[in-house]
Design a protein that fits this description.
The chain is α+β, with helices and mostly antiparallel strands. The protein has 3 domains: about 45 residues, no CATH class; about 270 residues, BirA Bifunctional Protein, domain 2, CATH 3.30.930; about 90 residues, Anticodon-binding domain (Rossmann fold), CATH 3.40.50. The chain is about 35% helix and about 25% strand. It is built from 16 helices and 19 strands. The strands form 6 sheets. Strands 3-7-8-14-11-10-9 form a 7-stranded mixed β-sheet. β10 and β11 form a beta hairpin. The longest helix is centred in the C-terminal third of the chain and has 26 residues. The protein is globular, with a radius of gyration of 25 Å. It catalyses: tRNA(Pro) + L-proline + ATP = L-prolyl-tRNA(Pro) + AMP + diphosphate. It comes from Fraxinus pennsylvanica. One of its GO terms (cellular component) is aminoacyl-tRNA synthetase multienzyme complex. Pfam families: HGTP_anticodon (PF03129), tRNA-synt_2b (PF00587).
């Protein structure tokens, strides 16, 4: 879908004459609409988001990218703490015995599992796997820690890295062999039986507890029972907010098919983004109801309030640094990155709580600096020259549409805040309009095939059953 990056295409650009700005020497050699893959590969490097590493599929995340991840992490971590979810950390390595205990789950990841087989020059007696995800790492200890109903709910999250040895074309942020993510895992008591009849409601697009309670006709008295079941959708809503409120990327919430759901799960909900230039959807983040599948395999049992043995229900959920790649693909242009203000590490005006940096480098011309910061996607550039000082004003230049605005010094903070808010809103609206323009409703297979060729986002009848 996206560019192959240095791993497969670095040689393709050799010998090409770059279409750079003569006065600065900066620029991209390809346009976004002409060669999306090469454009993306250039943007992530020239925008100082990543550096290629000497192992294919692994990338160095530079500070410009890490600052975005940290902003998203700060938001999400604060929100899950409100839900009484606590952070922890489990080891990177997995013993093969535990890994093979859950065959259905592992079959979904088996081709991507990396193994440690040597220590120095010595072969290990038993190879050790590197986690592709942490269910098999964590759940044996859930079984140890959970004894009675007072130990529930157990709600844990960890910020960590995972390794999936992808064999398809590696793409920075989008498809890499090591990536950063958060992964949440919960265990809780069984939901009331009558609610199983309304599962189709609480896994639908309605995602707020009160709305679901209303449409299910369930009294608020049962809120404590429902809370963990709705956690799947509460987390999904946080993922929507990450994409739409922070990254300014429109997404669609929904439920995965049985074939596409998380291996070993009961059902999987997802937020899906769309890249108009490629005509491809892309999975943004997932939140799973695991049912009791893992609880059975890892014997996560407890004594309920009646003194009876019972088995927990579970959820898990994760989002990754793929979020950054999706944002770049949606907003980037022929000048480079375009960063929404909420996640940009540099906005302007530090003392007013607006992230800023003064470029006082005297070995570069103003034109070079302008192009440099445009490449890096800074939302708003403020220029101050002798004429501006004489007129007691500054000139602000928007990255999203290149509009120039003269702002009086006295109103600088207020107007800059207004501009940043408008840029954030505008980026989302433009992305949504482009996405919506690609949605095509079909009713026949012939219409479906044609819409796919035209790179459309297809809305079609679907029953998820084989005939």
């Amino acid at each position: 879908m996206a560019g192959k990056g240095k791993d497969a295409s670095s040689s393709n650009t050799k010998g090409k004459k770059k279409e750079v700005k003569k006065e600065t020497g900066l620029g991209l050699s390809v346009k976004k609409d002409d060669n999306f893959g090469e454009w993306y590969s250039e943007v992530v490097v020239n925008g100082e988001m990543i550096e290629y590493y000497d192992i294919s599929g692994c990338y160095i995340l530079r500070p410009w990218a890490m600052s975005i991840w940290e902003i998203l992490q700060t938001f999400f971590d604060a929100e899950i703490k409100k839900m009484k979810i606590k952070n922890c950390y489990f080891p990177l390595f997995v013993s093969p015995g535990v890994l093979q205990k859950e065959k259905d789950h592992i079959e979904g990841f088996a081709p991507e599992v990396a193994w440690v087989t040597k220590s120095g020059e010595s072969e290990l007696e038993v190879p050790i796997a590197i986690r592709p995800t942490s269910e098999t790492v964590m759940y044996p200890y859930f079984s140890k820690w959970i004894r009675g109903h007072r130990d529930l709910p157990l709600r844990l999250n960890q910020w960590c890295n995972v390794v999936r040895w992808e064999f398809s074309n590696p793409t920075p942020f989008i498809r890499s062999r090591e990536f950063l993510w958060q992964e949440g895992h919960t265990a809780f008591m069984k939901i009331p039986n009558f609610l199983l009849l309304t599962k189709s409601c609480f896994i639908s697009s309605c995602c707020r507890i009160k709305e679901c309670l209303s449409c299910c006709g369930v009294k608020l008295l049962f809120l404590c029972w429902l809370q963990e079941s709705f956690l799947v959708l509460e987390i999904l809503e946080l993922y929507r907010r990450i994409y739409e409120e922070f990254l300014a990327v429109p997404v669609i919430k929904g439920k995965k098919s049985e074939h596409e759901k998380f291996a070993g799960g009961l059902y999987t909900t997802t937020v899906e983004a769309f890249i108009p230039n490629t005509g491809r959807g892309i999975q943004g983040a997932t939140s799973h109801c695991l049912g009791q599948n893992f609880a059975k395999m890892f014997e996560i049992n407890f004594e309920n309030d009646k003194g009876e043995k019972a088995m927990v229900w579970q959820n898990s959920w994760a989002y990754t640094t793929r979020t950054i790649g999706v944002m770049i693909m949606v907003h980037g242009d022929d000048k480079g990155l375009v960063l929404p203000p909420k996640i940009a590490s540099i906005q302007t005006l530090n003392e007013s709580g607006i992230r800023a940096e003064v470029d006082s480098r005297d070995n570069y011309s103003p034109g070079w600096k302008y192009s440099n910061w445009e490449m890096k996607g800074v939302p708003l550039r403020i220029e101050i020259g002798p004429k501006d000082l004489a007129n007691n004003q500054v000139r602000a230049v928007r990255r999203d549409n290149s509009a120039k605005i003269d702002i009086p010094m006295a109103n600088l903070v207020e107007q800059v805040n207004d501009l940043l808010n408008d840029i954030q809103k505008s980026l989302f609206e433009v992305a949504k309009q482009k996405r919506d323009a690609c949605i095509h409703t079909v009713n026949t297979w012939e219409e479906f095939a044609e819409a796919l060729i035209q790179k459309k986002m297809i809305l079609a009848p679907w029953c998820d059953e084989e005939v």
